[in-house]
Amino acid sequence: xxxxxxxxxxxxxxxxxxxxxxxxxxxxxxxxxxxxxxxxxxxxxxxxxxxxxxxxxxxxxxxxxxxxxxxxxxxxxxxxxxxxxxxxxxxxxxxxxxxxxxxxxxxxxxxxxxxxxxxxxxxxxxxxxxxxxxxxxxxxxxxxxxxxxxxxxxxxxxxxxxxxxxxxxxxxxxxxxxxxxxxxxxxxxxxxxxxxxxxxxxxxxxxxxxxxxxxxxxxxxxxxxxxxxxxxxxxxxxxxxxxxxxxxxxxxxxxxxxxxxxxx
Length: 264
Description:
Layout: H1 10-27, H2 35-42, H3 46-58, E1 62-65, E2 70-73, H4 75-105, E3 108-115, E4 118-125, E5 140-142, H5 147-154, H6 158-165, H7 181-194, E6 197-200, E7 207-215, E8 221-230, H8 236-241, H9 243-254
Helix pairs in contact: 1-2, 1-3, 2-3, 4-9, 5-7
C-alpha cells in the first residue's frame, strides 16, 4: 500500500491544533517549562515543538527565558484575552440598555464592533413582533452596507480608513448597495457630520436600520448601536425619529465602559 495522502488543508489545520496545544500546555506552567518537557506534555517530537515555539515566540504568543532555558506564555495571549473580556463586558453593560430601547421602539436593537474588516455583532435584543430581523451574536456583516458598519468606518482616522477600504470588496448586496469608493467616502463624510448612519435595504433587502457610535468617557468610539426593522413596517422617517432615543442609549452604554481598554 502507498503512503497516505494528505488531504488539502489537513496539514495546516493539524499544525494549528499542535500550536494551540502548546499554548495550552504553557498556560499550565506559569513558571516556565523546557522544550523537552513541553514536547513530552503535548506528545510531539522535540524538533516539531521547537519549530512551533519559534513561530509562536516570533509572534509574541510565547517567550523564552535564556537563563533558565524555559518557555512561557507571551504578552500577545494576554492582549487577546483582555480583548475578549472587554467585548464580553461591553455586551453585558449594553444589554439592559438595549432591552429598554427595544421595548420602547418595538424593534430589534443590535451592538457591533469592528473586527476583521467587518461589523461583528456582540449583542442583540430581538423584537416581540411577528416579523423580526435575522442575524445573531457572533455573526458579522459588511461595513459599507450597514448602519453599524458605516458608523464605525466614519470614526476612523483618514489613513486607517483608507487602509481598511483597501481590504474591502464593495460587492453589491442589493440594488441600493454603495459600490463606489468615492460615493462611500461621501456617505461617510455625511455620517461623520450628522453623527448617525442609515442603511435602507443596502445589505438585507427588506430591512432598514439606523446606527450611531458608542463612545466611552474619553470620546473614543468603542462600538456602534443600531435599531433595525422590516422596511414594510417601519419607514425611514420613523427610524430617524427614534434617533434621540438611540443616541441616549449609546451614551448610557458609553459612560459605563471602563477606560483602561483602548479598543476592541
